[in-house]
Amino acid sequence: MISIAFICSIMLGAVQPLSIAVLGAFLKKLQVAAENNENILDATVGQILIFAYLGAFITFAAYTANTLWVISGENQARRIRQLYVHAIIRQDMAWFDKAGEGSLNTRLTVDTQMIQEGISEKFGLYVTSIAQCFVGFCASFAIGWRLAIVMLAPMPLIVGVSIISGSLTTKYTLKTQNSYAEAGSIAEQVFSGVRTVYSYSLQGRFSDLYNLKLDKAMQTGIKRGFVSSIGLGSSMFILFATYSLSFWYGAKLVFDGVIGAAFVLMVFFCMIMGAMSITQIPPSLAVISAARGAAFKIFMTIERVPDIDSDSTEGSKPHKVIGNLEFRNVQFTYPTRPDVPILKSLNLKIRSGQTVAFVGPSGSGKSTSIQLIQRFYDPLGGQVFLDGQDLKSYNVAWLRSQIGVVSQEPVLFNMSIFQNLLMGYSREVPKEEVIDACKQANCHSFISELPQGYNTLVGEHGGMLSGGQKQRIAIARAIIKNPSILLLDEATSALDTQSERLVQKALDAASANRTTIIIAHRLSTICNADLIVVMQHGDLIEQGTHNQLLSLGGVYSELVAKQQIETSRAEDAVEDDDKDDIIVHSNISELNNEYHSNKDIDVQFKRSQSMRLSKFNTATSVDAFEMKRLKEKGIKEASKQQSAPVSRVIRMMRPEWHLMAAGVCGSAIAGAVFPCFALVFSFTISAITFHGKEASSPFQGTNLYSFIFLVIGIAAFFGFAAQTFFFELSGERFTKRFRGEIFQTLMRQDIGFYDSPDNSLGTLTSKLAIDAKNVNEMVTKSWGDITQIITTGITGFAIAFSQSWLLTLVVLCITPFIMGSTAYEARINRGFEDKSKKANEQSGEVAGEAIKEIRTVVALNKQAYFEDKYYKATEYPHTLARRKAWTSSIGFGLQQGIVLFTYAVAFYTGIRLMSEGKIDFTNMFGTTMTIITTAQVIGRASVFTSIFAKAKYSAIAAFEIIDRVPSIDPELEGIEPHSSQISGDIAFENITFRYPARPDISIFNGDFNFTGKAGHTIALVGPSGCGKSTTIGMLQRWYDPISGTVRLDESNVNKYSVGNLRSHMALVGQEPVLFDMTIGENIRFGVDSNKSVTQDMVEDACRAANIHKFIISLPLGYDTRVGDKGSQLSGGQKQRISIARALIRKPRVLLLDEATSALDSESEKLVQTAIDNILEEGGRTTITIAHRLSTIQRADLICVIKGGRVVEQGTHWELLKLNGVYNSLVRQQSLNAN
């Protein structure tokens, strides 16, 4: 296939210059026949037919070459993608630690696309260009070397201008993109931490930061526009100056009798074709070089054999595993941090059937031990044994099939619950067995209540389910696997007490009769373990049962004391064993919603051609992506019905009107250049062919025409330069303003807007980046093109009709084909490129899911499953690309051959009219050249239509955001009392509330009431989803209640201006949000921008937050950058910095939402100390939400929320006496010795 394509491409390149020889022969015969008064039609008809034959041959060769290049490129690229996905999923964890999943996904979508472009039609164009260049130059030197040398002289100038302007444009483009990327990262930080931004009213500061980056981008963008406009203008001028020189010299050679007139034309055209093909080589070469670079990286991965190879068939596979484990002198450091020892010399024996718990602070090596058992890594020193044999002696895939894992962040894939459960096992599992496992894992009852039961899609990352539900499904998956060894890594750490109890029951059942290793920070979950191992800094420091370790009075008993809840004053209480799922119902109606909203899409989906994807029962997750694709299609269809808001964009661009007017004038000049060139060209050919004597004065005949070429060159310089520069300038200015406006509008929206799945972080950042750019192109690119096309059309047809209206009408019959082929090729190519890129990205999401959750995929031994699923997902883009091969090649073939067909028709008609004396040669040649040039320029208009269509969708989307009126508008006025006037009383009265994103799930039904006195600490406890965090959201006015009143002091919170209300409060959330700047700047963000903050104030806040010593121990102290999302700091450090940020605000109301739940015991102790200091200091109202009850036992008021209302309230001791819900929660978390 490639050989045939290669031969066709060479022939296509070689035949183009040879067709010029036919034109030369035609002119020669015409000249001879005219001089001898012969019948000119008889003399030239043979040559005219050759044009037609050549046209047919070129069309066929071009079509065949293009089709075969596209098909062969697509087939190879699909194979490469498949091999690459296989190679990635096969690698060991050490490789993944260094690779970074984002870069792997990018390589899979972007790099393979680059390879495909480099081995497809672009490579064909490269071959054609080289052949055309070689034949063109050889032919011109063979026909008339003198003229060829003169024409070559200005070539270095053109090349030099191209290189200089190209490199400068690239330099400024990179700078512009970097500035936009910096602006994008600012926007990303705002969207990902939007609640923090709103709490501290940081919109103005981020808007200023964003505009600063946009301004930088605009300045470099303007420089880029200037450089490219001068580059384009200069190239045009040099080109026309070359024409001027070559025709003047060619005419001289003809008049001196050195060369015939027809040969001048042949040398000129061959040379121009050779030169034009040189300009086409660099773009193609750039694509091929990029493909080679991409291929190098990809093939490095494909050829890499990992140290721990799950593909390997070597290693023993015993029939039975007993489950005895031993760590013997194990030493380990992570490959990415070789200087940080994780395990120093671990020695531990675990007997078959034992439940062993690992405890200790973060970073002590607990999770590492589990990963060594799974052979994600191998120890650097020492050995790990299973049943007396070194783990390395077992087959890797077999070993992992014997191990079940449930981790802290349970991973579910974007498919149905049933399919997620089956991921645990490789054979077919009867449905009864699956249901039995779910009953054991305590999740059968909530699954049965879902709209589609076990066939419910769980959404991306299992997002449609709560943490506890996901965790229990993961446990059921492990039970179905029936492993000999069960590994539980923090399996309940992120759950509330209610969910934790259900999950813990499931775990206890699952760990019976098998070796189980548990890692836990909540010590209440491991009291009953057969052996508890305490680790610290990579060493095993204590081991024994719960009671033995308590009696030792060492590290373990200290950890217990930190988490202990005082119950000694309470009478013994019977544990209230609430039945299963209080939490279940909140998610069920959401899934119902999802089910019904997907039903319409599903109907469409079933009808769609892509139905073949769902024939495979494993393709449900592809269906999830398919639904997403159809949803996007639906939105696009709806946009098609709306008209493009051009007038609104023009009104917005009012400050740039004068620049756009200058750009339009430049476009008009640029549009007239080529038709005028065609006319003067025909006059020149006529003068040297039929008026074979030199002009008597410098401004007559060929001298005059050569001078006119120079004038056209000057006009081209100003026209093209003005068009490019003024539109680029106005575009850059408008984009800066428009992006800034969209960003500000987004920061005005209510939190409900961000809760909608349609407004995810990725969607909003790409909207900012892409929509503003596209809307800018609606005017800057389109207007220049439209003006140029209109001017070209008017000038071209005016010239053609003035030369010969009859011949013009005949040639116009072919014009639709010229325009159509140019348009069709550009349109189809552009359209398919976009479509297949998008389709490849979507199939990449399937692989992306496997790469992102590689540890789970590897632990489940499901590599082959995901490879197979990815192969099926690439079916749609593969079909698209093959369709593109057959269809877009028609346009390409016609485009290559149509000029020769036009010559045949025009010359035949022209010769007939000449022989009848109706026109002369100048009229005929002028008309033909002008119409061909005009039609080709107009044909390129289709590129403008696709730009316009994109811009239209973007404009509609952007204006939808700009016009959206938020339900809680931060710009509305309200009362603004000074901080000193606020005492801090809080009241919730008869609250009814539902989240805007889930309107049919009621959080509060009008029964929610509670009052908090100024200066008190109020703790809210209760199961997940009961509305604890919602109260903070309403106090901060992220949301307003549907009915009822939230008060701060005596006033309804909606009476305050939003900024003032939030200025009296400070929030510390479960996930601390820090921004990518210095520690000092992050803390200063706590104070409103209009107040000054001294360094002493910052340090005082940090001392109170227990973090000052740590900060000054850093090399840069308070000037240390915290990294993206605070990545350079641990969870506890981030949490204490966010507490300092809250304290420097000196709030009247402090809001603590789960401020210590995600921390290990060591970090929790530090953070809790900071919080206790604040609470003791008093003087402010504090609302704290906690699952760990040991952290809130000293609160002035504890409110227990259940079923949308406060069911119990009082102090810790009062609630224990009630012997109700709170007492039951305390008992479940109790750590007393048995």
The gist of it:
This protein has 1234 residues and is α/β, with parallel strands linked by helices.
Structure description:
- The chain is of the alpha/beta class and 1234 residues long.
- The protein has a six-stranded mixed β-sheet with strand order 6-7-8-3-9-10, sandwiched between helices. A six-stranded mixed β-sheet has the order 16-17-18-13-19-20, with helices on both faces.
- Strand 9 and strand 10 form a beta hairpin.
- The longest helix has 53 residues, at 203-255.
- The chain starts with a helix and ends in a 6-residue tail after the last helix.
- Mean pLDDT is 83; it is low at 570-622.
- It is found in: Membrane.
SSE layout and pairings?
Elements: H1 2-35, H2 40-90, H3 93-99, H4 101-119, H5 121-152, H6 155-192, H7 194-199, H8 203-255, H9 261-303, E1 325-333, E2 341-350, E3 355-359, H10 366-373, E4 381-386, E5 389-390, H11 396-401, E6 403-406, H12 417-422, H13 431-440, H14 444-448, H15 467-481, E7 485-489, H16 497-510, E8 515-519, E9 531-536, E10 539-544, H17 546-552, H18 555-563, H19 584-607, H20 620-641, H21 646-652, H22 657-690, H23 701-748, H24 751-755, H25 761-803, H26 805-812, H27 815-852, H28 854-859, H29 863-873, H30 875-915, H31 921-939, H32 941-963, E11 986-994, E12 1002-1012, E13 1017-1021, H33 1028-1035, E14 1043-1048, E15 1051-1052, H34 1058-1063, E16 1065-1068, H35 1079-1084, H36 1095-1104, H37 1108-1113, H38 1131-1143, E17 1149-1153, H39 1161-1177, E18 1181-1185, E19 1197-1202, E20 1205-1210, H40 1212-1218, H41 1221-1228
